[in-house]
Amino acid sequence: xxxxxxxxxxxxxxxxxxxxxxxxxxxxxxxxxxxxxxxxxxxxxxxxxxxxxxxxxxxxxxxxxxxxxxxxxxxxxxxxxxxxxxxxxxxxxxxxxxxxxxxxxxxxxxxxxxxxxxxxxxxxxxxxxxxxxxxxxxxxxxxxxxxxxxxxxxxxxxxxxxxxxxxxxxxxxxxxxxxxxxxxxxxxxxxxxxxxxxxxxxxxxxxxxxxxxxxxxxxxxxxxxxxxxxxxxxxxxxxxxxxxxxxxxxxxxxxxxxxxxxxxxxxxxxxxxxxxxxxxxxxxxxxxxxxxxxxxxxxxxxxxxxxxxxxxxxxxxxxxxxxxxxxxxxxxxxxxxxxxxxxxxxxxxxxxxxx
Length: 355
Fold this sequence. Notes:
Order of helices and strands: HEEEEEEEEEEEEHEEEEEEEEHH
Strand content: 25-35%
Shape: extended
Distance between the termini: 175 Å
Helix content: 10-25%
Oligomer: single chain
Number of helices: 4
Structural class: alpha+beta
Largest sheet: 5 strands, mixed
Strand order of the largest sheet: 2-10-9-4-7
Number of strands: 20
């Protein structure tokens, strides 16, 4: 009876990872379109953003064979794990674009890549055998990928950043792989990678390894956190983060444009104003070369710089302040008080009265 209860409980729950890694559990192992199931998981990175999808042509042992093109992307759901790496999310059941066998696929959106699958059956959806695995040579990444190269002065002014993706692959198949075609994708944030096919010239025999170098280039002015992905045979082999600095030269250029252009427009406008301004008396054009302010200069005698060149200087002050300018005797005046110089005048005053 205990064995029967264990079998029944395991039938209603799908497990998509080992106990020591990310895991996924489903409230139902089968449901029809229009219904919903509850997806729970643990063992994930704390505060990680995950995407939950129903995918066809997939089994946990092989993963999603056709990539996300085999999934019902429009009905997917996103969820963020808690501080302990756990989550619970309700997922609507939708038919994937390809036949089953199906899985509920959970994968990280950004940061370190992690994924897990749980077996799920979409009721009423077609079921077909999985496509056969390609026989012959198979490539596997043996070392960690890295990005070689650095940014130059042109990149600081908005030129496209470029690096070289370097990794080592080994042929774990039974036949040689000649001129393999890799797919290199670059993604920014939560956006999907933009894939570009690149062919490596050479032959990798069974049991041998080779060092691969593939160029990677972003668009002009790109900056921020990017992820470089490597795919071969429809399977992602490796991912490499790439932090691209901001092109501060472009910012400096626009700051200078915002300062220089208004100044140039102002200078040009002032030149036009000087030309179209009517002439003033005295032949001066404008207000700077022929500016005369005689009235202001006379009102402000304490500011000699404001006097007009054509204004007559005021008469010199008399050295004897008790004389008016008309009676000023000149610079040869006496030092004594003024008196009559007539020789006939008496030197002493006359006194009236009897002799």
